[in-house]
Write a structure and sequence with these properties.
- By secondary structure, the chain is an all-alpha fold.
- Among the domains are: 44 residues, no CATH class; 57 residues, no CATH class.
- The protein is 82% helix and 0% strand.
- It is built from nine helices and no strands.
Length: 188
């Protein structure tokens, strides 16, 4: 078996799989290692794609789809600060409906990076552009709930349920309202 053209981490994992199969590891253990291997390969692909897109971003005039893709890749990677940076660039260049939907992702990344007030501002801008947007109402409730403002969280979630009763976010909101009510009863 020739494995020399592969990155070192992949070669090591392949060799580890071979050794484990020779040692009689269980199918479940071998499967876990394969999943780890696939995760590493996917991560390396994302890193290569990020590198190429950032090179393109830095060497040419900014392009909205590149900013959006970089924002998505960084969000997937868990780098919320970089994701928010690229989402913000995208929003500065694009005013389409797609941009307004991206505003929701931008707000989530702002919140995850500790910029709570900015996240709420972005969600309120989204509600100005698309009144009663289910995702904006749900996430405003989630932010308020996470910062301990249960009454505001319940208000946003109740509005969501009233306007979009069949939406899956309304189902989640109803569960959270129930949790808030239970917590309130327990503390009384």
């Amino acid at each position: 078996m020739k494995i020399y053209g592969l990155p070192l981490s992949i070669r090591i994992l392949i060799q580890l799989l071979i050794i484990l199969s020779l040692l009689g590891c269980s199918k479940k253990q071998t499967e876990s290692i394969r999943e780890l291997d696939q995760s590493i390969v996917a991560n390396q692909r994302n890193e290569v794609e990020i590198s190429k897109l950032e090179s393109l971003w830095n060497s040419h005039s900014p392009h909205a789809p590149v900013a959006l893709k970089l924002g998505n890749l960084y969000a997937e990677k868990g780098d919320h600060i970089k994701a928010a940076e690229y989402y913000e660039s995208f929003l500065e260049m694009d005013s389409s409906i797609k941009a307004q939907e991206t505003r929701l992702d931008f707000a989530k990344e702002l919140f995850k990076s500790g910029r709570t007030e900015e996240a709420k501002q972005e969600l309120n801008i989204l509600l100005e552009k698309i009144p009663n947007h289910a995702g904006a109402l749900y996430n405003l409730g989630a932010i308020e709930g996470n910062v301990g403002n249960d009454s505001m969280a319940t208000e946003y979630w109740s509005k969501l349920i009233e306007i979009h009763p069949a939406d899956s976010l309304s189902v989640l909101a109803a569960k959270f309202i129930e949790q808030v009510q239970t917590k309130t009863r327990d503390t009384e």
